[in-house]
TrEMBL record:
This is Aldo/keto reductase. Transmembrane segments: none annotated. One of its GO terms (molecular function) is oxidoreductase activity. InterPro entries: Aldo-Keto_reductase, NAD(P)_OxRdtase_dom_sf, NADP_OxRdtase_dom, TAT_signal. Residues 60-355 form the NADP-dependent oxidoreductase domain. GO terms for cellular component: cytoplasm. Keywords: Oxidoreductase. It comes from Rodentibacter trehalosifermentans. The lineage of its organism: Bacteria, Pseudomonadati, Pseudomonadota, Gammaproteobacteria, Pasteurellales.
Length: 380
């Protein structure tokens, strides 16, 4: 639970929060509905949810964009990024998602610096699995989950995160060259040393999840999941339910496309180092002629629910299962506050039925990632 002094800070800082919250998103709702958006609440503190045995805020903060350029927004300075981490905690976020690959390293450094004054009150999740030289940051572009490499990476992570333990450590992508049982065994060794407290897998298939869980129980699985990509609804999410594993949707706003500022006229930088969406098939101008139908549907329902499109999209994810905790990424305080407002958006059974009737007839065209990157997600 968030402590009383934080609550006080929240209330006394409420006007500032309100002012920040009434940014683009609030104007979106006001313009479209003439009414106040849900994000205007200065008392907003997210509820808590369980991911396996971990208790976290119902929405986490995705920290990738705090360590590298992502979606056409320049990476913030270290100082700005640390400030955003503080603001997230001040508004009740206790779940911070990072990875060695983000930067590389800079996102972990931001999180380490950002959370150090409240380290014991939050959960840090990070990820290993890419072949990255821990001294130089040089990437080979390949995977590497060999035991010695994982152990070296974890030691370097602990330094970057300024901590003595990682609350939740994911394998970022399944390494076909290292049996998952061997990876699980390595994690067990790290747990015995107290360096890792819980573990998870990212973008893993059902077979791998079962095999890994049999050796060392998993706390969470992280995979892409949003109104734009619902591919895990029939396999991994039911399996998580069966095994008591939490599920963390990445890109819950479809890389910003569900937040109200992207449509069929949007054009993204061709260089993925400036904007990853420039090389993603579902965001080509041709694909967006079709995919904008989903964006319009979300806008329509956001208007009906008196919330912003981002809030609607995140609330819909949280509505699917109690063990789902989205980690929207942002570089801006006003978007952070907007996203936290999703916690207050609730659906009746009839609303969900009607929404799904409209949703299910929209086909999303184009791959969710370029084929070369998607190949790393193909593990069964
Ligand atoms: N496991 C994996 O393989 C994997 C892969 C990708 C990501 N992740 C994790 O998932 C996190 C989130 O994913 P993501 O960042 O790719 O995608 P996302 O959360 O779906 O979208 C982020 C984008 O949405 C914009 N945005 C956020 N809130 C907004 C709001 N309320 N109004 C308008 N725009 C808003 C952000 O822009 P601003 O910065 O301008 O707010 C940013 O461009 C990452 O940070 C990372 O921690 C994991």
């Amino acid at each position: 639970m968030i402590n009383q002094s934080k609550r006080h800070l929240l209330k006394t800082g409420g006007l500032t929060a309100l002012a920040m919250g009434l940014g683009g998103s609030a104007m979106f709702v006001a313009a479209k509905t003439g009414k106040q958006p849900i994000s205007a609440s200065p008392d907003k503190i997210p509820d808590q949810r369980k991911l396996g045995n971990l208790t976290v805020s119902s929405l986490g903060l995705g920290c990738q964009g705090l360590g590298q350029n992502m979606y056409g927004v320049p990476q913030p300075s270290r100082q700005q990024a640390v400030r955003l981490v503080h603001q997230a905690f001040d508004h009740g976020v206790t779940f911070f998602d990072t990875a060695e690959a983000y930067g590389p390293f800079e996102s972990e450094r931001v999180v380490g610096e950002g959370v150090k004054s409240f380290r014991d009150q939050i959960i840090i999740a990070t990820k290993f699995g890419w072949d990255i030289d821990q001294q130089t940051g040089q990437r080979t572009g390949k995977l590497n989950s060999r035991p010695e490499h994982i152990k070296n990476v974890v030691d370097a992570m602990l330094q970057r995160l300024q901590t003595d333990r990682i609350d939740l450590l994911y394998q970022h992508r399944v390494d076909p060259n290292v049996p998952i049982e061997e990876v699980a065994g390595t994690i067990q060794d790290l747990m015995k040393q107290g360096k890792v407290l819980n573990w998870g897998l990212s973008e893993a298939g059902e077979k791998t999840i079962r095999q890994a869980h049999a050796v060392q129980p998993l706390t969470a699985v992280q995979s892409e999941y949003s109104l734009f990509f619902r591919g895990r609804e029939k396999d991994v999410i039911p399996l998580c339910e069966e095994l008591g594993i939490g599920f963390v949707p990445w890109s819950p706003l479809a890389m910003g496309a569900l937040a109200g500022y992207v449509d069929e006229n949007s054009r993204f930088a061709a260089d993925p180092r400036q904007d990853l969406r420039g090389i993603i098939p579902r965001f080509t101008p041709e694909a967006m002629q079709q995919n904008v139908k989903l964006i319009r549907l979300v806008e329509k329902w956001a208007k009906r629910k008196l919330c912003t499109p981002a809030q609607f999209s995140l609330a819909w994810l949280m509505e699917q299962k109690a063990f789902i905790v989205p980690i929207p990424g942002t570089t801006k305080a006003r978007h952070l506050l907007d996203n936290l407002g999703a916690d207050d958006v609730k659906f009746s059974a009839e609303e969900l039925r009607q929404f799904h009737q409209e949703l299910d007839v929209i086909d999303i065209v184009g791959l969710r990632l370029p084929e070369a990157i998607l190949n790393f997600s193909e593990a069964k």
